[in-house]
Structure formats: structure tokens, C-alpha cells
């Protein structure tokens, strides 16, 4: 591990950054080192990662670069994969995650631990309140998970800007509510903004819709209190699916407005939380925080 990378990492806070742009920069900045060692480094962003985050952006980038560089330096020729993502962590907070998988050395003498310099671990934990773990897989590969605190940007409230965003982006959404009236109202608001909307009348139907669809919805607007399967249970079930469907953004749309209701929804794996009655600007503001731009 190059200790100088961390020593000179900046400590500004509250800077906006885009995970997709960070992934592209990581791929470029590590390309020469990886090619020199005969390594193919595949860098990407997982489904469901917000397009924008707020955090210690330059330091996060430096730490991700140091993580990749350390693995490249201790790996034999082959392939490494680095994936960026964000996990809801309550209110407007998220955990920004860099997960590196591949074959690299797990020990390099007294100064190292799990293949990574102890000073890297100390500075990372002390400076960012971050955590890192390294585990060995059954096939002998290793998985390093680096978690760093970040936050969502404030919701945009300008209705005209949000409508322009929605109409230019579009996309497929799933609205889940046991009330036919509520389904019709929310679906209508979103359809008029340019989205293609499907509906489900309960949690069980929502789980089936996400699991069975050839192309799953890009986001789910989920009621919470439903008789057959409530929204929290449906969300937890979707989060256990074994592919990109597990990371679909799920936004609670509920009449339950108590703080403990919000905590329960986020604990179940929901990404965001809206209380009824909702306005179109509320719906679009939440979606705009979580939906990545459509590929060009």
C-alpha cells in the first residue's frame, strides 16, 4: 500500500460526487499499474446506487484508489473486480461501499494485515469513521469491503425542474398499494410525468412482479400497511433476491408518519420515505435522488 496516497488525502467535507464518474476515474487512474502487472481491473457501479452523493469526495476517491492499487500490487496476473454502491443508513445517510474481489496476497510480512498496510486501516478508521473487512471465499479469492459515510443530496422541490427531468428520463416504475384509489392517484401522477407505470395490489404481488418480470422496474413505490404482505416484509424479500433486482430502489409511500415508522421502513431495506398524501413533486424529488441517468 502506498502510504503517501493516504497521507496526502484531502479532508474537505460536504462535497458532491457522482459514483459513475468516480468509477470512470478509478479505471483510468489504475489502468497503467494494472496493465503493467498483467491485471484486468473491472470497475463498475451497482444497480440502485444514487446518481449523486454528498461526502468527503476527494478523500473517498483517494481511498478507493489506494484500495485498488494495494490489491493490484499484491495480485498475480488475472482479473480483479471493483464495485461501488450505496446502502441506506437512516434518514438521509448512506454507506458508500467499495467492494473489491479477486485473487491477491493475504499476507506480506509483519507490517501487513490481510494484505493491506495497517497504517491504511488506522488512518481510514480514524479519519473517516469508515470500516474495512477482508474475507476469503471458498475458491481462494478474497473480498475486501470498504464502507465510508456519505449522504443523499436534499430533494429537489422545484416542480418545473422535476417535470423536465422526469420527461427527459422516463423509465419503468411499480406502484404498490392495497387501495385502488391510491394506486390510481400515484400511478396517474407518475404517468403524466412521463414514466411507464405498473401496479400491484399488495406486497406478495409486488414481490412476484419484481421476481418474474423479464425486465424489472427501475424503482418501486411501496405502501407499508397492506393485509396480505406488508411493505416492510415485501422489501426484505426483494432484498434477498440474488441479482440486481435485490438493489432496486424502494420508496415507502405511507400514511404512517411516526418516526418509528420511518425507522422500520429503512431498517427493512427501503431507500426513501414519503408520507401520504403525496404530491407529484414529492414523488419526483425522491425518484430523482435514486434513479441513475438513462444510458446514452
Give an overview in words:
Helices cover 39% and strands 26% of the residues. It has 296 residues and is α/β, with parallel strands linked by helices. The strands form 4 sheets. Strands 2-4-5-9-8 form a 5-stranded mixed sheet, covered by helices on one side. The model is unreliable at 1-12 and 107-115 (pLDDT under 50).
Characteristics:
296 residues; alpha/beta; five-stranded parallel β-sheet; 14 strands; disordered N terminus
Distance between the termini: 37 Å
Overall number of strands: 14
Instruction: Give the biggest sheet.
Output: 5 strands, mixed
Structural class: alpha/beta
Please state the average pLDDT score: 87
Gross morphology: elongated
Largest sheet: spatial strand order? 2-4-5-9-8
Rg: 21 Å
**N-to-C series of helices and strands:** HEHEEHEEEEHEEHEHEHEHEHEH
Strand percent estimate:
25-35%
Secondary structure topology:
Elements: H1 3-7, E1 15-17, H2 19-36, E2 39-45, E3 53-55, H3 57-73, E4 78-88, E5 93-102, E6 112-113, E7 116-117, H4 118-128, E8 131-136, E9 142-151, H5 159-169, E10 172-176, H6 180-192, E11 196-200, H7 203-212, E12 219-222, H8 231-239, E13 250-254, H9 259-268, E14 272-275, H10 280-290
Parallel strand pairs: 2-4, 10-11, 10-12, 12-13, 13-14
Antiparallel strand pairs: 1-3, 4-5, 5-9, 6-7, 8-9
Helix pairs in contact: 2-3, 5-10, 7-8
Can you summarize this structure?
Helix content is 39%, strand content 26%. The protein has 296 residues and is of the alpha/beta class.
Amino acid at each position: 500500500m502506498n502510504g503517501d496516497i493516504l497521507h496526502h488525502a484531502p479532508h474537505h467535507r460536504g462535497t458532491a460526487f457522482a459514483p459513475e464518474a468516480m468509477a470512470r476515474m478509478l479505471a483510468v487512474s489504475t489502468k497503467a499499474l494494472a496493465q503493467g502487472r498483467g491485471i484486468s481491473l473491472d470497475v463498475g457501479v451497482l444497480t440502485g446506487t444514487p446518481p449523486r452523493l454528498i461526502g468527503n469526495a476527494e478523500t473517498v476517491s483517494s481511498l478507493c484508489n489506494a484500495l485498488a492499487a494495494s490489491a493490484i500490487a499484491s495480485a498475480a496476473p488475472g482479473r480483479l473486480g471493483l464495485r461501488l454502491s450505496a446502502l441506506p443508513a437512516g434518514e438521509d445517510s448512506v454507506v458508500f461501499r467499495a467492494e473489491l474481489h479477486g485473487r491477491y496476497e493475504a499476507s506480506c510480512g509483519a507490517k501487513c494485515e490481510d494484505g493491506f498496510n495497517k497504517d491504511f486501516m488506522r488512518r481510514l478508521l480514524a479519519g473517516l469513521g469508515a470500516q474495512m473487512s477482508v474475507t476469503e471465499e471458498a475458491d481462494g479469492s478474497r473480498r475486501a469491503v470498504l464502507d465510508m459515510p456519505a449522504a443523499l443530496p436534499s430533494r429537489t422541490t422545484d416542480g418545473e425542474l422535476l417535470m423536465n427531468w422526469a420527461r427527459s428520463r422516463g423509465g419503468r416504475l411499480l406502484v404498490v398499494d392495497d387501495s385502488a384509489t391510491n394506486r390510481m392517484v400515484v400511478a396517474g401522477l407518475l404517468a403524466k410525468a412521463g414514466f411507464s407505470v405498473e401496479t400491484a395490489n399488495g406486497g406478495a404481488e409486488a414481490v412476484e412482479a419484481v421476481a418474474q418480470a423479464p425486465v424489472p422496474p427501475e424503482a418501486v413505490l411501496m405502501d407499508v400497511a397492506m393485509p396480505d404482505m406488508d411493505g416492510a416484509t415485501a422489501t426484505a424479500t426483494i432484498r434477498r433476491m440474488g441479482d440486481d433486482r435485490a438493489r432496486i430502489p424502494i420508496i415507502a409511500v405511507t400514511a404512517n408518519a411516526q418516526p418509528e415508522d420511518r425507522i422500520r421502513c429503512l431498517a427493512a431495506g427501503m431507500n426513501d420515505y414519503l408520507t401520504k398524501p403525496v404530491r407529484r413533486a414529492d414523488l419526483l424529488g425522491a425518484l430523482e435522488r435514486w434513479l441513475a441517468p438513462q444510458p446514452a
